[in-house]
Specification:
Layout: H1 2-27, E1 32-48, E2 51-66, H2 84-111, E3 116-124, E4 126-128, E5 134-136, H3 139-142, E6 150-154, E7 157-158, H4 164-170, E8 177-184, E9 187-195, E10 210-215, H5 219-246, H6 257-269, H7 274-296, H8 304-317, H9 323-354
Antiparallel strand pairs: 1-2, 3-10, 4-5, 6-7, 6-8, 8-9
Length: 359
Amino acid sequence: MGIILAIIIFGLIVTVHEFGHFICAKLSGIKVLEFSVGMGPKLLQKQKGETKYSLRALPIGGYCAMEGEDSTNNDPRSFRNAKLWKRMIVLVAGAGMNFVLGFVALTIFICTLAKVPSTVISGFSGQRDDDGNVTYFARSYETGLRHEDKLISIDGARIYSAWDFNSIFEDMSVNESHTVVVKRDGHRVKVENVVFHDTADTESEQAVDFGIRYYKKNPLTVMRGSGQLFMTMSHVITTSLKQLVSGKAKKEDVSGPVGVVSAISDSAKDSESLLDAICNLLWMTSLITINVGIFNLLPIPGLDGGRLLFCIIELVRRKPVKPEHEGYVHLAGMVLLFGIMIFATYNDIVKLFTGGFHG
């Protein structure tokens, strides 16, 4: 059941991406030859007007084939004969729809919570006596943080949502000093030498010594919480991509479709309740679809970002690059991407047989 859910989610992400290209091409008057969900052998196909709609056997991709996408022809409705701004919108639309899907999934996820978490400090570890005086055990209060401070960053690490605290405080040692930027009374304030530690907790090395404010769910707080979590996920993904490009990421961390399906399946199987399973699937869906959107906008030949780069070059040069030259570049990019895909799939298979994936 987990694998079936994973395939459905993966297919949804790809379909939404290609639908972005499809609908913008149609609205721009560009002729769409085929809209396909899946790759490989055809299972179903229907011709409606000038466009074929296909369902193919392998749920690992899809495509929106437009007239004159890779070559010049005399059809006035071909992709290359469309105005530059229309072509750029069509190229960006796929990733844009991935972001929309991610935001919608996160909005539903936030709606499953009892209240919406924020990054505003609601209180500190302490004890109130009978006279109403408070003795604070929180070192962060002693070293400069205050109630209602909205945390912006810690040691340069940006805080977009409450979920950022997990990574920031995970490896933080107590009694270390930190530079914290907060929003206080409408102004950004930098607080130096902040120490996080609950002095009353002698058995734990827990660094977090404050509580955060939670808001009741309403359309405004849900949308704001979804946007903040969207920014957290986008930041995590872009950071991971930077590490991959710079060589800081381990080759074992590279994963392909098999790994993605396995991760989604595991998140469903490991859930303790139906609600927990839904939350996990919403989380995985949003993470993967945002990842797909960001990755597709990278200026890599063969991807939407690579094609967009040629549009930008055309905008600067005021004339397009020759189709055959652009085609050679995209072909080289596709070969490279297929190589990466094969390597990632090999990694996934190795993990399956060596227990690298946990189910």
